[in-house]
Amino acid sequence: MDYQVILSPKALGDLEIIIRYIAHDNPEAARKICQRLLEKTKELSQFPFKRQKVSEFDEPDIRQLILKPYRIIYRVEEDKKQVSIARFWHASRFSPEL
Q1: DSSP per residue, 42-96
Q2: Does 58 or 17 have the greater pLDDT score?
Q3: What is the SS3 assignment for 1?
Q4: Minimal CA–CA distance to 68: which of 45, 90, 35, 93?
Q5: Homologous superfamily of 4-90 in CATH?
Q6: 70-85 per-position pLDDT tens digit
Q7: Which of 27, 40, 55, 84 is the most exposed place for a label (fewest CB within 10 A)?
Q8: In this predicted model, what pLDDT tens digit does every residue of 82-97 receive, in sequence order?
Q9: Is the link from the previous residue into 60 a cis peptide, with omega within 30 of 0?
Q10: Exposed, middle or buried, 89 (CB in 10 Å: 0-12/13-18/19+)?
Q11: Buried b (16+ CB within 10 A) or exposed e, 44-62
């Protein structure tokens, strides 16, 4: 059974910030990166534990998917069959806050 993938309010805010920042110089590139990030999240509906743990957190249900230079940080809620996207985080930034 596939997991449902949902975006947290913080993740949606992250996407908005990313889009605005890139769109300032290149609106088409902003649209493309947003689309690619959202497409990557769909991959998590199957085998969400396949991805690596987040080193900053010592919790087996917090994982990440890399789409350079971004980290898609998510929590697997196995009992709900749900993947909650917590953050879209630029790799050059300090440690993510959930």
Answers
A1: HGGGS-GGGSEEPTT---TTEEEEEETTEEEEEEEEGGGTEEEEEEEEETTSSS-
A2: 17
A3: coil
A4: 90
A5: RelE-like (3.30.2310.20)
A6: 999 999 999 999 999 9
A7: 55
A8: 999 999 988 777 666 6
A9: no
A10: buried
A11: beeebeebeebeebeeeeb
CA distance 25 to 29: 9
Ramachandran class of 47: left when φ > 0, alpha when ψ lies in -120 to 50, beta otherwise: left
Question: Distance between CA 4 and CA 81 in Å, rounded?
Answer: 6
Q: DSSP label at 7? A: E
Q: Give the pLDDT mean for 16-37.
A: 96
Question: Residue 69's CB: how many other CB atoms inside 10 A?
Answer: 11
| Tokens linked to 37 | 């990030």
